[in-house]
């Protein structure tokens, strides 16, 4: 049976189908979609799709990120439709829907990459933007290929404990530790506007950093975020990206394992979920053309900590995309002075 949904007339007069009404159907009921939104096949046109990509054959340590998309869906049942940090109702601004899962052959990484790129291209063909939920970080490469085909070389903000610009593992080129080196080699990303955020942890050697810098990446480490603060980091990232088409790739291990234990290659000393969410809010008004949130591995999660963090990350990304590049920067996300719920002092 189809439960009662929140509905809206969108800014352009279109009828928009929202989430299941939580005041009428309890949150735990019904088959899960992201934020209890409709499926793409229940709406006429989807502006922003949440797409699961349950593929984890590219991992170098713990596996299980194939179970990520449905875990994030389950952990998103409590999300509410109004985002006070941005004073925005993303599901009333445009049609957001769950596109289900895109499958990659778990026994053939090269074939999986091809089919993920093709599936993403097909979904975007009708003008839909995507927030993909992985899956391991291997999937960023085919997603970048699909976005490059539409936009040319994109700016990239890569939130991750890891550089993921390594070359090969066991001779394999396509793994979760190598997508951004391949993306650089293929000319998918704009070397003038690519940044890692939240980087930390041991490397194999100094060559890792030399290679990474040669590809054009800047680094804001997790310690930089702690020392310089969220607002300084946001303004640095905004300067770097400008008005270029921007792809955001967020590995949930950018969060400290205390905030996101359910992941495959955890590293101590990470960012808090508050820091990450605030930085994402600070991207308001940038031209985000696509995003992924990857590496949620539920077998290592506890009490849905990681799933909930990922669900909120997806929600903030959807909000910034729904507000679009015409949104005024410096909205409520900008710090304490114009704070949540519009209550704080001017000074
Ligand atoms: N993309 C993620 N999550 N991890 C990459 C780790 C690569 C390594 O094993 O050194
Ligand atoms: Zn990582
Ligand atoms: Zn990664």
Morphology: globular
What is the CATH third-level topology name?
A: Arginase, Chain A
CATH architecture: 3-Layer(aba) Sandwich
Approximately what portion of the residues adopt beta-strand conformation?
A: 15-25%
CATH superfamily: Ureohydrolase domain
Helix-and-strand structural type: alpha/beta
Count of individual beta strands = 10
Give the number of helices. 10
The profile of the biggest β sheet is: 8 strands, parallel
Which ligands are bound? Answer: 4-carbamimidamidobutanoic acid, zinc ion
- Strands ordered across the widest β-sheet: 4-3-5-10-9-6-7-8
Mean pLDDT comes to 94
Query: How many angstroms does the end-to-end distance come to?
Result: 52 Å
Under the CATH scheme, which class? Alpha Beta
Molecular structure report:
With 347 residues, the chain is an alpha/beta fold. 30% of the residues lie in helices and 18% in strands. It has helices spanning 68-74, 90-93, 109-125, 140-151, 179-185, 206-214, 222-228, 230-241, 273-281, 305-323, and strands at 5-9, 15-20, 48-53, 96-101, 129-134, 154-159, 189-199, 218-221, 246-251, 288-294. Strands 4-3-5-10-9-6-7-8 form an 8-stranded parallel sheet, sandwiched between helices. The chain has a two-stranded antiparallel sheet with strand order 1-2. The chain is globular and about 55 Å long. The chain starts with a strand and ends in a 24-residue tail after the last helix. Bound molecules: 4-carbamimidamidobutanoic acid and zinc ion (ZN) (2 copies). One zinc ion (ZN) binds at residues 160-162, 251, 253, 265, 295.
